[in-house]
Amino acid sequence: MIPDLGCYEERHRLTGSAAVSVAGGVLSLAALSAGPLSVQLIFIALSVVLALPWLAGPASRMIAFRADYAGITLGADPAGWPFRRIPAVFVHWTDVEQIILYPLYPRARGRYALAQGIGIRRRPGALALPPGNEPDSSRRVPGVAAWATRSIITWRLDRERLAAITAAVAPGVPVIDASAGPPAQLM
User: Fold this and answer.
1) For residue 1, is it within any domain?
2) For 12-68, how does the pLDDT look when each residue is reduced to its tens digit (9 = 90+)?
3) Which helix or strand (DSSP H or E) is residue 122 part of?
4) Distance spanning both ends of the chain, measured CA to CA
5) Are residues 52 and 107 in the same domain?
6) Quick one: which of 51, 61, 74, 78 has the fewest CB in 10 Å?
7) Residue 41 and residue 120 in one domain
8) By the 8 A CB rule, do 28 and 47 touch?
9) pTM, whole model, 2 decimals?
10) Residue 25 in contact with residue 48, Cβ under 8 Å?
C-alpha cells in the first residue's frame, strides 16, 4: 500500500526496548516457583509494574504520533502509567518552529543513548498548550515545552516520511537531528 503523502501516523506497538521490559516482567513471574509466599507476591507486583504499562499501548493501538495538513499530534504515552499520565497534545503547523530529534540517555551518566526522543520547538508567542508550557528540563532540549516532547520507545519513527510530510505541508519548518554533535538538518 502506498503511504498517504498528506498524513504520517504511527501507533504504539511492541518494539525492542518495550519487549525487554515485558520479558523482565515475565522472568519475574518465573521466579515464583521458589521462595516463601511474601517473595512470590513481591515478584507478582514487580511483574505487573514492569509488563503492564508496556503492553497497554500496543494492545490499545493508540496513536503515538501523527503529522498531517493541520499539524502534529503527539499521542498520549501509555508507558507512563501508573507513575505519570502524559496526555495527547496537538500543535498547529503555524506554531511549529522546529522538530527536534534527540537521544535519550539513562539517568546515570553513560555513553550510549537508550532511545530517541522527539520535541517540537514552538514559535514565540504561540498559544499555551492545554497541559502547560513549562520548559522540559529532563529532555535537555532548550526551548521545548515539557508537553511537546515524547520518547520514541513504544513506536518507531520513519525519519524520511516525517521529512517528506513536513516539506509538503510546512516547508519552512526544519527537522533537526541533534543526536550526534552539532544539529544536522534532515531536510
Assistant:
1) no
2) 776 665 566 566 656 666 666 566 777 777 777 776 666 666 666 566 678 889 999
3) strand 115-122
4) 24
5) no
6) 61
7) no
8) yes
9) 0.71
10) yes
